[in-house]
Structures are given as C-alpha cells and as structure tokens.
Amino acid sequence: MGFVPKPRRRSWRSNGSVGMSCSSSFAPMESAKIKVVGVGGGGNNAVNRMIGSGLQGVEFFAINTDSQALVQSAAQNPLQIGELLTRGLGTGGNPLLGEQAAEESKEAIAAALKGSDLVFITAGMGGGTGSGAAPIVAQIAKDAGYLTVGVVTYPFSFEGRKRSLQALEAIDKLQKNVDTLIVIPNDRLLDIADEQTSLSDAFLLADDVLRQGVQGISDIITIPGLVNVDFADVKAVMKDSGTAMLGVGVSSSKNRAEEAAEQATLAPLIGSSIESATGVVYNITGGKDITLQEVNRVSQVVTSLADPSANIIFGAVVDDRFHGEIHVTIIATGFSQSFQKMLLTDPKAAKLVDKVASMQEGKGLPLPLTTPTQSPVPSRSPTRKLFFS
C-alpha cells in the first residue's frame, strides 16, 4: 500500500495503575491515503459538514443520482451515478434505483476510489440513493483491498416505518461489504439535544455526529500530534470487525480530562458497551494547553473500563481551535449484529441494558451476557462486528 516499514513503537501505561498497554507510534511515516465518500443526500450533507469543520488529511467525494444536489456539494470530487437510469433526477426514495444506478456507474466509482488505503462511506440510511448505492460503493472498495468503514445514520422514528424498514435492509447489505460499520440511531440523538432543538438543527446534529465518527479515526492517522497512530494499528483493530459503537465527550472544566473521558464512555451513543468491546480506538484532542498528565488521565478512564484483553490504540492531537477544551472520541468494536439490531429497533430494551450494566458496574458485578428480551448482548464471536449506537 505504499507504506514505509513499520516505525518504532512504544506502549502507554497509566502510571502503572492500569495493567494494559495501548500501542502508538512516534516515528514519522508516509501518510495513509484516506477518502471520504458521501453517498446520497444525507451523505453529501455530512461531507459538507466535514469540509466546513476543517477536517484535514482526507480527500472528499460526493456521490448522488440527483445532479442538482451535486451542484450544492462542497466536495472537490462530485460524481453523478446512474445518469442513463435516472437522467439526473434522483431515485424518488427507491433503494432499488439507487442500487441500479451504482451498478451502472461501477467503473467510475472504482476509478474514483483507486489508490486508497482507507475509505469512509457515509450516508443516511432509509432513502433511495444512500440505501441503494452505499452497499455497492462499499463492495467496490472492499473488493479492491481498501480498509472500508461505513459511518451511517438510522432514521428518526418520526420519519416513518417505511423509511426505517428500508434502512434496516440497507444496513444488512452494507454490513456484508465493509470492514467496520458504525450506525448512529438518530433517535438516540434526542437524548443529547435540547428540548427546544429545531427540526433542521436535529438533522445538523446527525450530520455532525457522522463528522465526529470519521474525524475521530482520521485525525489520529493524518495530523501530527502528541501521539500518532500507525495506520497498520488502526487496520488491526478495524479490519473485518463488523459492528462498532461511537462515544464523544467534550469538557472545558477544571477536571476536563476526566469529564471528557467519562462523557465519551457514558454517552447515549455508546451506552455501556465499552466494557464488552474487543477493540477500542480513541482520540484525544485539545489546544496547545493540553498536558501529558491530561492525556494520561483520559487513558486511565478509558482503559479502566475496557476489557483487559481488548486491543486498544489511541492518538493525541493538538488543535489550536480547541484551546481550553478537551475532546475525546471513542470507537469501540467487536459487537454482535443482533445487539446492533436491538439498539436500532428496540430503544427501550437498549436503555435497559445500559441501566443494568451501569448498576452492576457500580456494584463491582460482572456485566450481563444476555438481555431480558433478546439473546446475546455484545458477544466476542470470531467475526467481530462494529456499530455506533
């Protein structure tokens, strides 16, 4: 893939209090080639959000059947698919047309992705182009040997049952064609949003969570920082990993390191799942005022909650825009597809799992292996699966 030999590596230990090492790399290396592909309206919006936020070190692509939507894209590489099939008019919410459009334009998609090391595919599940075309784009990327990570949203309940069913079918297809799949259930964003949040702001919030999922991984690979991560280490955690969860925390208080870490591990998007993860990738970002001790304290919180056998890697990045703040992004991997489906279709059961796990953790009891209503909660199957929940 065009990389130099693996650089010298060191392990991170938190003052000897945590008997777990986190691998990271300190020697400079050739950058991995990362492409972020937004598919459909939701994916295109997410890419615009990433570009607007100043996401660095990646190449952006916008794929759509709707030619007018591509005119609004800020991506430097817009790609209209299914031109003969849809004549630039979109799919009308029909995933089959989205799939056929991607099949029609397979060669153009493959050419756009050529030379990648890591491909992020972002989309809103439930519509036509995103649901139908994203699995085809993923298949092309994975068949070419690129590390392929899907970062997608599951519709709000108020968007209707038809859209939810289309989303579930699309997620099932996408899962088969990615190394790692992070699914963000939009309903769980309601636990984060203020009661006065407008409808348009709710969708912007969903776009921003997609952005954080991509940036949490890409920054630790591409941005020189306090601790940089070898792409090979990221690949070791995320290759053929299936379902993953996302957690995000931000704090500017006196105890900002601990607070940001605790927010990320207890966030509504990640629940109590970090304890059952087989792999964890986390990113610590702060301004020039971030200290080594603060990086250490974040690591203590994360590693103390993770399973001792989990494969853990992390990076620490300095970004002047975050002076006075610490941002922590966690991607926890290694979950069963049945657990992910429960999180999407039965939020009450998912919250009950979180509550029971939190209570048992507080009492020092082992976490449950089954839920009251479903069979396995996160399991360590040979084929690991990752999602955002």
UniProtKB/TrEMBL annotation:
Keywords of the record: Cell cycle, Cell division, GTP-binding, Nucleotide-binding
Domain Tubulin/FtsZ GTPase residue range list: 33-225
Cellular compartments per GO CC: cell division site; chloroplast; microtubule
Stretches assigned to the Tubulin/FtsZ 2-layer sandwich domain: 227-344
Residue stretches of biased makeup (Low complexity): 14-24
Keyword Nucleotide-binding: yes
Pfam family, one: FtsZ_C
GO biological process: cell division; chloroplast fission; microtubule-based process
NCBIfam families: ftsZ (TIGR00065)
Family: Belongs to the FtsZ family.
Official protein name in the record: Cell division protein ftsz
Species of the source: Thalictrum thalictroides
